[in-house]
Amino acid sequence: MTDSVLAQAFVYLCAAVVFVPIARRLGLGAVLGYLMAGIAIGPFVLGLVGTEGHQVMHFAEFGVVIMLFLVGLELRPALLWQMRRPMLRLGGVHVVLTSAVVAGAAMAIGVGWRPALALGMTAAMSSTAIVLATLGERGLLKTGGGQAALAVLLLEDIAVIPILAVFPLLADPALVTGAATAAAGRPAWQSAALLLAALAGVIVGGRYVVRPMFQFLARARLRESFTAAALMLVVGVALAMQQVGLSPALGTFLAGVLLAESEYRHELESDVEPFKGLLLGLFFISVGAQLDLGLIAARPLVIGGLVVAVMAIKATVLYTVGRSFGLDRPARWLMAVGLTQIGEFAFVLLTFGLTNHVFTPALVRLATPVVACSMVLTPLMFVALERWILPAVTDDAADRPADPIPAGDSAVVIAGFGRFGQVVGRMLRANGVSLTILDHDPETVEMVGRVGIKVYYGDASRAELLHAAGCARARLFVLAIDDHEMATATVRAVQHHFPHLVILARAHNRAHYFELKAMGVGIVHREQFAASFELGIDALRALGVRAYTAHRRAHAWRVHEQRVLDELADDWAADRTRYFARAKAALEEAERLLRAEDPGAIRDRDAAWDTAPRRADTSTDSTDGDSRD
What is the dihedral of CA 196, 199, 200, 204, to 10 degrees? Predict the structure, then answer.
């Protein structure tokens, strides 16, 4: 262990480089990766850093300030107004009830009312970073439960302002020493007045100083100056708040909210984001380094009992709130299970409470592992939610029987009518082809039905539904299902029961393409390939290549791509090293063939498609033999 700031920074960064990618690969998220890194280098494992006197912590704590600024930038008034009702109803009631119940439980085990109330507000915070990332990865963010969880998280972000404002008022006079800051001896009413005055200064400055300053810098077109101004704003507001004895994070949060509708919001985000990610990572590493593993080992039942108790309280409150406001069973279970953890902002509040004499060091040492353990359990909670809870409580998807399908002689059966299937189906309908369309998503069935297209609900991998859909008499089967496993099961069912039926399939990527080809599906299209292919042609034309030249070259490249793809199918399954070597060689071959083309031989022929004058271009195109006047 060393006191050198460079040595400390090197140790922190090495730990982040090693542990964060591992945590991401395991599905645990970056925050937990930083915590594990801190635990590893902390005094209780490798002992590379200590728990006191970190010079790096001065930078790490600034990461929290930047985080609050960016959170404020995300809280656009338009978004807040759009979600005001679920935020105030679900989020507001949840924060108040959870704070009250946890505070009451803390007082019941002997904690004073001031730190108990602060602990209640701290426990009410859930992890915005972990929950939103997990919901997005699992495709649950757009569901009713996902939107309810988003509303609660937004309200919790807004609740940061009053929580940070209230904490100094909860300071225990017995913990305030003569060496405390000047604000410690200030009466509560003076602190509140200073808070209002400082916030008013931020509001006035943001309206009449900051925005004109950014307008001036934008006209100067100096990116370095804009980045410096963004950091100057964050540092300046934080310093002003610190000078009056208030939370720097509170001021920067409000500054972010004021600039959320600014035309410079995206520029500010892109300039400040890299600093936030690194510095906030250092903060979480320092939190991990301060986790007392000895305490956890010595009192496992106490720590485990507190984790279970807090998560149970939050789950009960969230489920009750969701039910009282009319959420369906899947939505309230998703919200209750997904938001049970205590969020990363709890580490900020614990540190802030310790600095402002709300918590004792012993209480913070006990609470910190409780917060970390609840976050570590979050991925496991989502696994349980998806595998056991949601299938058991989802009425529409689990219990709804397949729709009855009248007898008919449709030429084509389409399984899956999302974005991909709808394009195919609309084209076939426009050409007078009779269709029978199946989909396993009740919302898709209802939505498409509103525009006059009949879609039958059911699982296309079930033989009885395929028989009812008329697969015995159909000529083609179009597989356009989103779910990878269901698509594979459907192919097997069709091939087994209707071997005469020609299957045209959608593949999600190359791996899925190879899998479908190995199953004997003759015609497979990668879902995004066609759109990317057309965009490539437009890109060539935008660069000045003649229309026919662009299409001819793109077609030649596509023929080569398809031939190589089919040749590589066996290598993908048998030898990945050989696959990547041959794929690299094929890429180089395609580039060599197209570049070796003689432009003069086809110049006049390729000009036939261009009926309009060529667009202005200052570049020289030597590839299609076009001379510029």
Answer: 180
3-state SS class at 227: helix
| Strands across the sheet containing 435-439 | 456-457, 435-439, 412-415, 476-479, 502-507, 523-526
Alpha carbons 162 and 118: distance in angstroms, whole number? 12
C-alpha dist (Å) from residue 116 to 111, 145, 341, 429, 555: 6, 30, 18, 65, 70
Q: Is the pTM of this model over 0.90?
A: no
* Rounded-to-integer distance, Cα 422 and Cα 453, Å: 10
User: Contacts from 191-197 at CB under 8 Å and sequence distance 24+?
Assistant: 191/245, 191/246, 192/165, 194/244, 194/245, 194/246, 195/165, 195/244, 195/246, 195/250, 197/244
Q: What is the pLDDT of residues 249-299, one digit of tens each?
A: 667 777 777 777 666 777 777 777 777 777 777 777 877 777 778 888 889
Rounded to whole angstroms, how far apart are CA atoms 526 and 560? 16
Kindly give the pairing relationship between strand 502-507 and strand 412-415: unpaired
Quote the tokens at residue 383: 């696994």
CA dist., res. 39 & res. 45, Å (int): 7
Taking CB atoms within 8 Å and a gap of at least 24, the contacts of 317-320 are 317/94, 317/97, 317/98, 317/101, 318/94, 318/152, 320/97
Tell me how far apart the alpha carbons of residues 170 and 192 are, in angstroms, rounded to a whole number: 12
C-alpha closest to that of 92 among 308, 350, 317, 247: 317
DSSP 481-534: -S-HHHHHHHHHHHHHH-TTSEEEEEESSHHHHHHHHHTT-SEEEETTHHHHHH
CB-count burial class (<10 Å; 0-12, 13-18, 19+) for 254: buried
